Amino acid sequence: MCVIRSNNTDIKIVIPNFINKKLMKYKQVGKHSVESCGILIGTHSLDGKKIEIRHITEPSSKDIRKKYFFKMNSQFHQKKLNEIFIESGNECVYLGTWHTHPEKIPTPSKCDINDWKKQYNKNKKLFDKMCFMIIGQTSKIIWMINDNGITKLPRENIIYE
């Protein structure tokens, strides 16, 4: 696997319960379930030690969704991000993406890791770190990426409120 340890483990991710409920309804359970995807929107603390997920986009009818594949309709998700950015007084920004996997404990694919690196390289002038979430059938895992690489965050770094 291409996941590299870095110094991201001192960061806390805050996920409100209503966001967690939205995400959990997309878990891939059952024979005919398909991957779901969206973007994570929220804030970075000034000290860089906390990211708060305040909004997510949910799958669009324009997204391509298969059992082991998804492709987001970037126009749909970007439009939602732009609306939230303006409504929040330019406070809520793009944090990364979320998607589902049809496995109990999700593991990023090579395609996932390549996409995360691409997204980070596009946005690193704005943010020094980004987060990416994969929702499995029994667990949800968040990875952080920065210039030092990609780190799987420990569960104790994720705060639900």
How would you describe the overall organization of this protein?
It is a single chain. With 161 residues, the protein is an alpha/beta fold. It has one domain: Cytidine Deaminase, domain 2 (3-Layer(aba) Sandwich). 22% of the residues lie in helices and 33% in strands. The chain contains three helices and ten strands; from the N terminus they run βαββββαβαββββ. The protein has an eight-stranded mixed β-sheet with strand order 9-8-7-6-2-3-1-10. A two-stranded antiparallel sheet has the order 4-5. A hairpin with a 5-residue loop joins strand 2 and strand 3. The longest helix is centred in the middle third of the chain and has 14 residues. The N and C termini lie far apart (32 Å). The N terminus is likely disordered.
Main beta sheet: 8 strands, mixed
Question: What's the overall geometry?
Answer: globular
CATH homologous superfamily annotation: Cytidine Deaminase, domain 2
Number of strands: 10
